[in-house]
Amino acid sequence: MELNVLSQHEQALKLRALRNEVLSSNIANADTPGYKARDMDFSTALKHVQDGSLRLMGTNDMHLGAGRGAAPTTAEQLKYRVPTQPTLDGNTVETDVEQAAFAENALMYRASLAFLDGQIRSIRYALKGGD
Amino acid sequence: MSLFKVFDTAGTAMNAQSVRMNVTSSNLANAGSVSGDPDKVYRSKQPVFSSFQESLNSQSGISGVRLDGIIESSAALSLRHQPDHPEADENGNVYVSNVNAVEEMVNMISASRSYKNNVEIINTTKDLLLQTLSLGR
User: Fold this and answer.
1) Cβ pair B121:A102 closer than 8 A
2) What is the value of ipTM here, to two decimals?
């Protein structure tokens, strides 16, 4: 079913947005002493989402499909970056690396958007009977 | 939508970097100022940054930049013998501020580059959001 494809790209889009946030946090803290840069392993994270191992956090037993207990948060999927060059103040942000990752991530976000857009267009086309 | 938080994060960083630029310009303006009293001499000032996680974001590992304060450098003042100076003490000496002009220039370049980086982040994220808004049109 086509709608399934839609949801796949939707999940990818959500993760890309999250990674965008993490990388921008790294760049924002490029001059903060002791800050440790983080990033996510995108393919593993996407797999987790698609396996359904990421669920909503439940604060009440009545919550649907959740139950009590913290969901595995995205923070747990974030890993610390290993710097290629150490700094004196303990900061592990390497601005060029972060910028490259950010650019790649933004591009992939746009790619996912384009795929989604195409899917929506084809569904519309089918609905209108090729009009 | 989580992309909106990027504006907050980059905003805190831009704020911190602009304070750093201000402090640097104050230091450069006062470089080489002298006084006969070591307590009254201008001392180089430096901002201190730290990262903080907003309460809502505490799980996501995303943090902004906070300005912890501005400290005065404890580097030694240099002493210059200049008896004709109106501010000179009884020995004919004046104290010169401990601003290091080279360090301050480096600080200025670093701050302006970091600021620009964050502007780029905001621009890119804004583009992404606008494209998302026009999805399926």
Assistant:
1) yes
2) 0.83
